[in-house]
Records
---
Amino acid sequence: MKKFEGFKPETIDFMWELRMNNSKEWMDQNRDRYKAVLKEPFDAFAAELAELSPMFCGKKMKYSVSRINRDIRYTRDKSPYRANRWIVLYDEKFRGTEWKLRPSFYFELDPEGFTHGVGMWCATPAFLTAYRKKIDSNPAAFQRLAKKIDKDPLFQLEGEEYKKIRNESLDPLAQSWYKKKDIIICTRSAMEDILFTPELPQYLAEEWSRLKGLYAFLEDIEAE
């Protein structure tokens, strides 16, 4: 695999054009271009970022790169391809798609910019119950963790939340975490020069190291 040298302006051009020409006919005509400016750079980027994973989570992680094809079986939008691409990095012990049920680091690139952070998008009710029990077991420690992330100028808490679940003993900030059904801590950026340099993996590893405590908190949760 080639070493990651940064994404190319052509990478972004390709995503824009795919969004405007989302068809098999167009993709068939641009298949080689897709491999050269999107697939191969992304694969190299993901591999290099995984090598840096001990820096931001204390252990080696595996990675998964999104497919270009969309699953259109259960959606009204029949566009066959994604005009964005993402990677997730997760614990080596997980197999197949087990990572979807656990916290993972992620990076997503689209025609307008990029998003990255730590998230859980498919948390089970059992995991969320265990998550709240862990907060309940030491509210003061969790409130310190929540405040540390809240003070970080880069990352924000996002995700859907339950309306009726509450713990009145928590301060308002920790309460917002307690109600979450999707736990996502991320940042969104427009196009920046760092995207087009070989230093992007190192840059992300340094940013993600600020979320190491949160990742450890989530990763330690054992759902019954």
Note: The mean pLDDT is 92.
---
Amino acid sequence: MEFVELIVNGRTLSGEVEGRKLLSEFLREDLRCTGTHIGCDTSQCGACVVHVGGKAVKSCTMFAWEADGMEVVTIEGMADEDSLGDIQQAFQDNHALQCGFCTPGMVMSAAALLDENPDPSDAEIRDYLEGNLCRCTGYQNIVKAIRSVAEQRESAAAA
């Protein structure tokens, strides 16, 4: 067993983990950040995407001990106490979800994309989301939601 301490969504959280425990499991089972979904355990679906040290990672591909001392942001950290974050709100407004299982990973990937490229084209959005699978929506409204956030942020910056 190994003791790990992470800064998760701005709060210092810790626990003991076996060396083989995945970050996705540690977040869900031990730290109760259940918004991080586990869809495949093979890094194919992207439902488990979180930000570690400012980078989007599939948390099923990382051991919990590898994140020791790092800042981790999960889907729960994308909203404040009173309202959804802008990407979450855009997903709702643009009907970019159906069953919602892939949504946390999609939102986290979209946030990383918009941090890297504040004004992506539709093709760039689709390319960036290639590692996130959605079995329900066909991606059209997901792309529309991400595009709307980019446009809103651009308008706010120009004002």
Note: The domain at 2-77 is CATH 3.10.20.30 (Ubiquitin-like (UB roll)).
